[in-house]
Specification:
3-stranded antiparallel beta sheet; 126 residues; 2 helices
Length: 126
């Protein structure tokens, strides 16, 4: 897996995707329209209008992978780390390898919420 400083992509599966409430936070930092992608794991409904994911290989989490602007990666990650820390669930940024073979950052659920698994693996198809 790539070193942490060389990761230039972000995998998103929930409210950071286009069409959801946090896309506005990510959109200034992306280079492209992203690609449909997946990561091994499971996605859950938290009951609070945002999802949670565990990248544990138990299924498939569906989302998009974005290339981040090289000059603003640090600012992007700082903003998203802050935002992910404002909701319940103890989210943390982790490295994942997507179904397309891209090493990317993603936000994984930590603990503290009642979760309901989304069978489709897609927050938009819950």
């Amino acid at each position: 897996m790539a070193g942490r400083e060389s990761i230039t992509h972000l995998f998103v599966y929930g409210t950071l995707r286009p069409g959801d409430v946090r896309w506005r936070l990510l959109s200034p930092f992306v280079l492209d329209d992203g690609t449909a992608d997946s990561v091994a794991g499971a996605v859950f409904d938290t009951g609070f209008d945002y999802p949670a994911a565990l990248f544990d290989g138990s299924g498939t989490v569906r989302g998009r992978t974005y290339a981040l602007r090289p000059t603003t990666i640090a600012a992007c990650l700082a903003a998203l780390d802050h935002e992910e820390n404002t909701v319940g669930g103890d989210y943390r940024r982790v490295m994942v390898t997507t179904g397309r073979g891209i090493v990317a950052w993603a936000y994984e659920y930590g603990s503290g919420l009642e979760l309901t698994r989304i069978a489709s693996g897609d927050w938009f198809r819950r």
